[in-house]
Amino acid sequence: MLKIGQNLKFDWQIFAVRGIEIASYDDTMLMSYVVDAGRSDHGLDPLAQRYFNHRTIDFNEVTKAGKTRMTFDCVEIDKATEYAAETPTRRCGCGSAQTAPRRRAHAKCLRNAGTAAAARAC
Prior knowledge:
This protein is mostly helical. Helices cover 48% and strands 5% of the residues.
């Protein structure tokens, strides 16, 4: 069965750590690059805006910013659900996988998925 996702290379590596092999997949980030390599950003947010005129929910909108910032586990469940449902790579509240520190935090969350340690990792 074909799996389609955004920036699957990262998820593929996480699954590989768990011994799960992913076969038959397409990556929308790579497809975007092949179609228009000259564009500077092939991330999910710009693609959603460009092709669907959809502005994705920013993590800071959900958790607030500055002194009022809260951890993801303190976000109202309705807001957290809407944010998490927007993209499969947002499986936890560690801010997804945009920067190296966030990728490491996200990897830790995925390794601990379903455990008490998962909440602490985020």
